[in-house]
Amino acid sequence: MMKAVSFLLPLLLLHSASIFISSQAQSIVSQPQVLKSKDFTNIQNVGSCSFTVVIKTSCSSVSFTRDQISLAFGDAYGNQVYAPRIDDPSTRTFERCSTDTFQINGPCTYQVCHAAVYRSGMDGWKPESVKIYGYNSSPVTFYYNAFVPSGVWFGFDYCGRAGQSPPLLHSSGKWFLGAIPGFLLNAMV
């Protein structure tokens, strides 16, 4: 009995640590920021990769916007995609509670780790999220839930944070950390 307890104790500690790590990973999500050091307007969109970008407009946004909206995103290696004027009021883009999907071509990237939107106009706009699907990377979602200020790049830059990746829509691997020690405990008993 004593051997079983001494063997199980490290497994229980490992399981507790995995739960702690998993709960800590969920709290990394930050708020969007004005990205003063980024200049996306000089990007040359020469490349052969296609990206799908899904933008959800918040249900607490204005009913519709006539503002000019641009998008930029990239990886930690300086590969950046710039999509000027993705807005189109005639097609009801960025209406309250809507989801808009864009096909954007640009330079190929590795894992996308920064994204920003630029708004110019008087109406205002509040995106809920921006999800980017790329060829060489996992899909990544940036959660805004904030009104975008006019005349500035507004978003997230996780590229300079060593060891951190952008928050994903669902971090499906978290259950795995807790499942392995639990499985081992059940197998031992």
Automatic annotation (TrEMBL):
<dbReference type="Pfam" id="PF06232">
    <property type="entry name" value="ATS3"/>
</dbReference>
<keyword id="KW-0732">Signal</keyword>
<protein>
    <submittedName>
        <fullName>Uncharacterized protein</fullName>
    </submittedName>
</protein>
<dbReference type="InterPro" id="IPR036392">
    <property type="entry name" value="PLAT/LH2_dom_sf"/>
</dbReference>
<dbReference type="InterPro" id="IPR010417">
    <property type="entry name" value="Embryo-specific_ATS3"/>
</dbReference>
<feature type="signal peptide">
    <location>
        <begin position="1"/>
        <end position="25"/>
    </location>
</feature>
